[in-house]
Amino acid sequence: MKTLAQGVLVCAALCLSFPDAIILAEQKAGEDAARLVPLPDKTPQPPDNPTTAAKVALGKNLFFDRRLSGNNRMSCASCHVPSKGFADGQAFSIGVKGHKLTRNTPTILNLGFQKELFWDGRAKSLEEQALMPIESPDEMNQPIEKLVLELKSIGEYRESFSRSFDDGINAVNVAKALAAYERSLVSKTSAFDKYLNGDKNALSASAMRGLELFEGEAGCVRCHNGPLLSDGKFYRLGVGRGDVGRAAITGKREDAYRFRTPSLREVSRTAPYMHDGSKKTLYQVVEYYYRGVPIRGPEGLELDIGALSDRSFTEIDDLVAFLRTLTNVD
């Protein structure tokens, strides 16, 4: 990958001016980031919104309540369906006005571990993210002031908010309650976690070959690493042509058509894939990296990846077998 290689060279040149101890510390941090490690049991909690059982229960009630939408027909769970890995199984969800949205609905499992949310990273916390779909005219189309008034008219919510917050029902606390519930949505142990924890029989022979490719010659681990199997960064992959992605947030030309690396946790439950939902199966996703990556991206921009054109298609089944071990099957 040309861009990554250039970055490594630049970093190496800069590090020549630092003391050896700092260089070694930075090298170790990079190695740790690139590791594949089990998912922690609990997500980090912000100081101003500590998780409590009452707050999680309140957030769950809100999450499944259709009154959060402008026409009282759509809840958060309409697009984030528990049985579908908290995605919805469609290339594009349908908003409250009956129109297709412009990006694939990602899972919200393990969202509390991520630092930048949405495909373009426009939210920096779950609390910031929580209200955006509610207020979006294309999604749930519910003015937050109107929602607060509606919730205040419901005795059950008045009691629930008073148990969780000193200042009762307001927009900030709606966001905090939803965030607390979403923070509780953590994947259960997968076959791959069992393997990482010492069970060497947890993976099939095909999945083991896939893991070796993933970490080795296929190079997937360069972007899909850490406990989420995502580095949380943004890349231009050549998928989708009309959506400028990250650039709409930063205003930078170099961010055009870049999207956040998705987590691979529970990936076999959250089809279809990519920000535009264009890949229906895991096989199609891996196949794209093997032969489908174009030479140039939209508007002639350089891509952050190149096709694995020198690799054998026979590897794809093994990589898919490994990806399937990232989903809990209990």
Task: Give an overview of the whole structure.
- This protein is 37% helix and 1% strand.
- It has 330 residues and is mainly alpha-helical.
- A two-stranded antiparallel sheet has the order 1-2.
Q: What is the element string, with H for helices and E for strands?
A: HHHHHHHHHHEHEHH
How far apart are the termini? 37 Å
Rg: 21 Å
Question: Within the CATH hierarchy, at the fold level, what is the topology of the largest domain?
Answer: Cytochrome Bc1 Complex, Chain D, domain 2
List keywords for this structure.
mainly alpha, Cytochrome Bc1 Complex, Chain D, domain 2
Helix and strand layout, with pairings?
Layout: H1 2-15, H2 20-33, H3 53-63, H4 126-130, H5 132-135, H6 144-152, H7 155-164, H8 171-183, H9 191-196, H10 205-215, E1 234-235, H11 247-250, E2 259-260, H12 282-292, H13 315-324
Helix pairs in contact: 3-8, 10-13, 12-13
Task: Give a brief rundown of this model.
It is built from 13 helices and 2 strands; from the N terminus they run ααααααααααβαβαα. The chain has 2 domains: about 55-185, Cytochrome Bc1 Complex, Chain D, domain 2, CATH 1.10.760; about 190-325, Cytochrome Bc1 Complex, Chain D, domain 2. The protein has about 325 residues and is an all-alpha fold.
